[in-house]
Prior knowledge:
Domain ASCH: 4-89
Protein name: ASCH domain-containing protein
Organism: Paenibacillus silagei
Oligomer: single chain
Pfam families: ASCH
Number of helices: 5
Amino acid sequence: MKCLTIRQPWATLIALGEKQIETRTWRTAHRGELAIHAGMQVNKAICRTEPYQSLLARYGYTADNLPTGKIIAVSRIADCCEVTPELAQQGWPGGNEYVFGNYAEGRYAWMLEEVVPLVHPIPAKGRLGFWEYPVLEEEL
């Protein structure tokens, strides 16, 4: 299965369904399944700011207990679009989603759907870019 390592707290926000767009500097043509891997780094400073702190607390998380080094969810990339000034003028994407991503012109927004958090996260070493993990159906 194709995987993507994402730093914390953003990986957990995706797994919780609070973040549905992942922003990157690169476009992807991949559509379909994508496992979300929580990287080893936690941005503790951002976890202590709003709206991060309140959202994480709602689910029992703090900067000190976020999962790291594990595949924590599976999702599906439905689309990828370039961030343009026109989108920004339309107020896209609104609310917390804007706070949770980097929507600078020229970046890419990956639309994630059908996110399912794993009941039993899978320990795995992450990598940059896409990487493969031989996920067995029993693990999901």
